[in-house]
Amino acid sequence: MVRAGTAIAVALAFLGAACTYENQQSDRADHDRTSGYVWQLPEGFPTPRVPPDNPITPEKVELGRRLFHDTRLSGDGTVSCASCHRPELAYTDGRGRAVGARESIHPRSAMSLTNVAYNATLGWDDPALTRLEDQALVPLLNTKPLEMGVAGREDEVLARFKKDRRYRRLFLRVFTNDKNPVTLRNVTHALASFERTLISGNSPYDHWAYGGQTDALNADERAGARLFFSRRLSCFRCHAGFNFSGPVVYEDSGMTEAQFHNTGLYDEDGRGGYPEPNTGVHRHSGRQEDMGKFRAPTLRNVALTAPYMHDGSVSSLEAAVDHYAAGGRARSIGANPLNIGSDSAADPLVSGFELTSQERRQLVAFLRALTDETFVRKSLQQASR
Questions:
Q1: How far is CA 222 from CA 129, 204, 322, in A?
Q2: Closest CA to 298 of 334, 347, 248
């Protein structure tokens, strides 16, 4: 008899959702080709892609870690990257919409940074945003909405780190070819290097599916896994692969086409319209066919990242399951649920399915089994250093 975890892995491979990367590494401690950086990778994880203009080193990762948690990196010195990406919440913030400097409310929620190194695109809806180095500039310089409030105060912010002896030494050690290394470019390169190391793959599911521990999941969690990977529910078609997120990039992965989905969350005009400014890829392209299309976020550590969806409008895992079971037309979400008609522009994959109360409980149990407690503990330890 084929073990359940193995059967799932085989099914994923057959469906093109995973396992195409397994030959990319020879052992778990892989070395970056240019810097000698040692990656400590979970079983089945490929080496992250590192851009040639920003080779990763332990010193650069450490600098990025310090900057990530330092409120001095914001214009008024009140918020840090970690304010919206809290380690104990898998680098989210527990809010439906993120809050920046001066209590500015962002229209979208803070996405998890779990395994962000593998994301084909970054953010919720921008197909062109593919580099962590570029993404770091968005919260730093955004003014509408205001996030970290650095725009117009770049020299002031950088001066804080130039005056700090420890930071001066770190920047000089990392960027040895720069006479004046404390620059915004080098800040974003250090942040990106740190974020690439936020790799999570030590959940009970991983022990069961890849580690050969048949008792790592209980009966309900195993039943939930079968539902998740079943053709009837097809959850895995959007939340695919080892990262449960759809398309990924990694070293030598080649070109990857990003995917975005309209999950039928809104239909304001009978054609699947989403409320401004959260119109998905449409916000960038202006094309009606891109209305409401957002990237499927990773489900790793998903039990820690509520509320869900791009605007935090789904409060719990149970509510998320109900939403998809209803074909994106759940009536039980929020105080003022919208009646989404059958003519909405939801992705064909969001077609709905029937679940018994027991199956609903089992599916949620499986999603909770994607929590990597080791990752959270390590992240908290890093934040406290």
A1: 36, 11, 20
A2: 248
Provide, for the chain, the percentages of residues in helix, strand and coil under a 3-state DSSP scheme, each rounded to the nearest 5.
35, 5, 55
Cα 285 to its chain centre, rounded Å, is: 22
Q: What are phi and psi of 170, to 5 degrees?
A: -65, -45
Find out if CATH 1.10.10.10 is the number for domain 58-199+374-384.
no
Q: What does 27-44 look like in DSSP terms, one character per residue?
A: SSEEE-TTT-PEEE--TT
Q: Which of 299, 302, 198, 304 is nearest to 242 (CA)?
A: 299
pLDDT, tens digit, 9 for 90 and up, residues 9-63: 433 433 333 333 333 333 334 454 446 789 999 988 999 999 999 999 999 999 9
| CA-based nearest residue to 270, from 338, 340, 346, 349 | 340
Residue 361 in this model has a pLDDT that exceeds 80? yes
pTM of the model: 0.89
* Axis-axis angle for helices 154-162, 184-196 (nearest 10): 70
> Strand pairing partners for 92?
86
Asked whether 208 and 5 are in contact (CB, 8 A), the reply is yes
